[in-house]
Design brief:
Blueprint lengths: L32 E6 L3 H5 L1 H8 L7 E6 L4 H5 L7 E5 L5 E5 L2 E6 L4 H8 L6 E4 L19 H8 L7 H14 L6 E4 L6 H15 L3 H10 L5 E4 L7 H11 L7 E3 L4 E5 L15 E3 L3 H24 L5 H6 L1 H15 L11 H12 L8 H4 L3 H19 L6 H17 L9 H10 L4 H9 L7 H4 L2 H12 L7
Parallel strand pairs: 1-2, 1-6, 2-5, 3-9, 6-7, 10-11
Antiparallel strand pairs: 3-4, 8-10
């Protein structure tokens, strides 16, 4: 006998949801779009979109138009569901929530003018984005890479942009030409001072366009707040879809899973007539830096270490890596003894308690976070998560030994994948493959090959003898550092 399939999630089937499923409490037909979001992937839909979903219950002006720069099957699948989708909060207490804050989905390829029309809507106040670190096309110096083919293409044809930098700059240019108030661009990606970097990139792009008036107008009129975002959000699986169907009574082809923990810290400079994010739990602060350093170094730094060392020790998920006593102990010591001294105090943030909470989150048995997912884009993540703390520790004369676990394991991981013919998910995958294929097993020459990657290692650090010595020793046997 064939098992009966549950009805597909949609506005018409919401009433069929099982008891206990959290549904939108507002009339979606009475909302208006106030946000254009570039890159409506899983993290955004499980994070910022949930905050706006809560806000719509009291203020209908903040529905979201998703602007997809790259193909994304799950986000697009929600279109057939009236843009509704389920967020499964998997923790000690399971919770299923239908999110309704997305009401429009537009594709950059084919609907360019529709996106620009939305950016020109005076009701749109924010242009938010989650495009990952590589989506900003920054060079090793943190500045916009004007030689990148995608950036060059946007400079040659600014009216059909491919990058978020091109979209934001041209969108602002059109608002300026129409004598409109600018929208506020808000980066929600894991970059230190992401607002400052976005601001600098847009200014560099405007200057490269040769538009001095636009450059001056953006400088004088546009705010670029920095933000910190946090919630562990593994990729959706077929198992998740089946679980949601069984638990909610509705079939969802675009679900999101995440832990219950949710945090968003925003620099308090959104201006007048901005969404009241504080009313739904967003922390509005004068200085985001301390919070983001804590998150990027403690959570993300630990994640990268668990990912590369865990994969090299045969583990597949964060939970499995945390069950590896030697590895989890080394990571905890790195966090408490090595990372914390590189951080700045933040109001209300106790580092010891924060680390304890993080370790408990990593052990969450209800959530399976694949290490291979965390291991993507290592060339971009490691400079922020590990090399920054290394430079701070060197400058202060503190030990750097345990930081080398992450870097040595990453190098071993790159080599193993190259030997197996596996293409890495990384913006410099071709270079990493070439380095990986050239490895001989000799620690000195192998490490030297990696240190020659200027996209990853700043020249000053690559030439530091203490750093090279520690890294070479760790590369020879990084597992010895786990004892």
């Amino acid at each position: 006998m064939t098992e009966k399939t549950a009805p597909r999630l949609s506005a018409k089937t919401l009433h069929l949801a099982k008891q206990g499923v959290v549904l939108p409490t507002y009339d979606r037909a009475k909302t208006s779009i106030g946000i254009v979001h570039f890159g409506p992937g899983a993290f955004h839909r499980g994070h910022q979109a949930c905050y706006f979903d809560s806000l719509l219950a009291s203020d209908p002006r903040w529905a979201i138009s998703g602007a997809e720069l790259m193909p994304n099957g799950l986000a697009e699948a929600a279109v057939e569901q009236d843009h509704l989708y389920v967020v499964a909060q998997l923790d000690a207490q399971l919770r299923y929530r239908v999110v309704g804050s997305h009401t429009e989905y537009l594709k950059a390829h084919g609907q360019t003018e529709a996106i620009f029309a939305r950016l020109m809507d005076p009701r749109v106040k924010l242009a938010t984005m989650t495009v990952t670190e590589k989506g900003y096309y920054l060079g090793g110096d943190g500045k916009l890479d004007l030689s990148n083919p995608a950036i060059k293409a946007d400079l040659e044809n600014p009216h059909a942009p491919k990058t978020v930098i091109g979209w934001v700059t041209e969108g602002l240019a059109r608002r300026k030409a129409a004598k409109m108030v600018p929208f506020v661009p808000v980066s929600c990606d894991n970059m230190v001072m992401n607002g400052h970097k976005l601001h600098a990139a847009v200014l560099a792009f405007a200057e490269a366009r040769g538009d001095k008036d636009l450059l001056a107008w953006i400088t004088d009129n546009v705010r670029f707040p920095s933000t910190m975002v946090d919630s562990i959000t593994p990729a959706a699986t077929d198992e998740l879809k089946a679980r949601i169907e069984a638990e909610t009574g509705l079939r969802d082809e675009a679900p999101v899973q995440r832990e219950a923990f949710l945090q968003w810290v925003v620099e308090d400079m959104l201006g007048e007539d901005a969404p009241d994010l504080a009313s739904v739990g967003v922390l509005m602060v004068k200085d985001v830096a301390a919070y983001e350093f804590a998150k990027l170094r403690l959570l993300n730094g630990a994640h990268s270490t668990l990912a590369y060392a865990g994969l090299m020790r045969g583990r597949e998920s964060v939970g499995e890596a945390m069950a590896d006593g030697k590895l989890s102990h080394a990571v905890e010591r790195m966090m408490r003894e090595d990372m914390v001294p590189t951080l700045h105090p933040a109001p209300g943030l106790d580092f010891s308690s924060y680390i304890t909470d993080l370790l408990n989150r990593f052990r969450n048995p209800a959530l399976t976070h694949k290490l291979i997912q965390i291991a993507s884009d290592g060339s971009l993540k490691l400079p922020i998560r590990i090399l920054g703390p290394v430079e701070d520790a060197l400058a202060a004369g503190r030990p750097i030994t345990r930081f080398m676990i992450s870097l040595a394991a990453w190098m071993r991981f790159v080599g193993r994948q190259a030997k197996a013919g596996v293409v890495l998910a990384d913006p410099i995958a071709a270079k990493l493959a070439a380095v990986g294929a050239s490895l001989t097993g000799n620690p000195a020459t192998d490490v030297a090959a990696f240190l020659a990657l200027s996209e990853v290692f700043p020249a000053k650090l690559a030439g530091n003898e203490q750093f090279k010595s520690a890294l070479t020793k760790a590369y020879a046997d990084f597992e010895a550092l786990l004892d």
